[in-house]
Amino acid sequence: MKYGVIFGGNSYEHEISIISAIVLKKVFRGDMDFIFCDEKRRFFLINAEKMNAKTFSSGAYEKEKQLFLAQNGFYEKALFGFGEKKRDIDVFINLIHGKDGEDGKIASLCEFYGLNYIGPRIEASVLSFNKELTKLYAQKVGVKTLPYKLLKRYDESSLTQKLEFPCIIKPARLGSSIGISVVHNQKELSYALDVAFEFDEEVLVEPFIKDIKEFNLAGCKIKDEFVFSLIEEPKKKELLDFEQKYLSFSGHSEVKEASISEALKEKLKANFKKIYEPSFRGALIRCDFFVIDDEVFLNEINPNPGSMANYLFDDFSVVLERLATSVQNEK
């Protein structure tokens, strides 16, 4: 089977997506074409030997073959510019993080042009990209979430809401811990809001709970079977920041299963199933959970997790290959 890895995109998480693709090249045994979407939303076919940071930071990728998307796949101009040649790819992997990849644009293109793909479908993308919609979705399927308030830059009345400290300020439509601040008092609030509003017009405010237990669980459903990763308890400072959360997976050391009871493991998996089924069929996702007094709360859904959370699986290649054989487009 031939895989097409779509990465890059016009997003604050553009570089993270590049890292994910480079890591995937190292850890996945499949035969892959690497299709880079630059910040102008042009597509380029990147030779596997040139899958390194310098290719993209220097702009050297522009010397590679440019591709365009049409019915049933990606195409390149044939020799001497006569006609087009379709790339022979069986299934695509949406590896764009943030805007373009996780907001539904790539899913829409894949559905419209009839591409088989691994990744969140349109509705799942919309629900998981917006942190408020994620909470509403979780509540609908019976998964607990922390209480929150929504501040809107365009609505002054929302900015007058009384907040309790300490709290966490998060842009509503941005991942990778970008623009997130822990605020301990009114003095810190103004600066934190300025930072968050640089990235989004809506900001989510949640209570900050010191030393809260956090667990990450990745997985997917293949035909009628759920396949789970091990459960990770990430090491973190006060806040699981950008560097800890995303840059570490490029050289991730061996991850150990969280030292928790079997009963709690089953609770986490049960909540994952509620989130996943049926909205996230066709995707390999990671759910980040909080545990408070033995109760499970959803923190966030990562529909295209960094490096596809490969480091959490005993045999990532087998899982991805099996998922690839089961994905189906909407009819």
What does this structure look like?
This protein has 331 residues and is α+β, with helices and mostly antiparallel strands. 27% of the residues lie in helices and 27% in strands. The chain has 9 helices and 17 strands. Strands 6-5-4-3-2-1-7-8 form an 8-stranded mixed β-sheet, with helices on both faces. Strands 9-17-16-14-15 form a 5-stranded mixed β-sheet, with helices on both faces. Strands 10-13-11-12 form a 4-stranded antiparallel β-sheet, covered by helices on one side. Strand 5 (73-77) and strand 6 (84-86) form a beta hairpin. Helix 4 packs across helix 5. The longest helix has 15 residues, at 262-276. The radius of gyration is 20 Å and the shape is globular. 38% of the residues are buried. Residues 241-248 have low confidence and may be disordered.
| Termini gap | 23 Å
- The amount of helix comes to 25-40%
Query: Main sheet: which strands, in order across?
Result: 6-5-4-3-2-1-7-8
Output the number of helix runs. 9
Strand content: 25-35%
Order of helices and strands: EHEEHEEEEHEHHEEEEHEEEHHEEH
Number of strands: 17
Quaternary state of this entry equals single chain
- What overall geometry do the principal axes of the alpha carbons give? globular
* Mean pLDDT across residues: 92
The profile of the biggest β sheet is:
8 strands, mixed
Radius of gyration: 20 Å
* Class of secondary structure makeup: alpha+beta
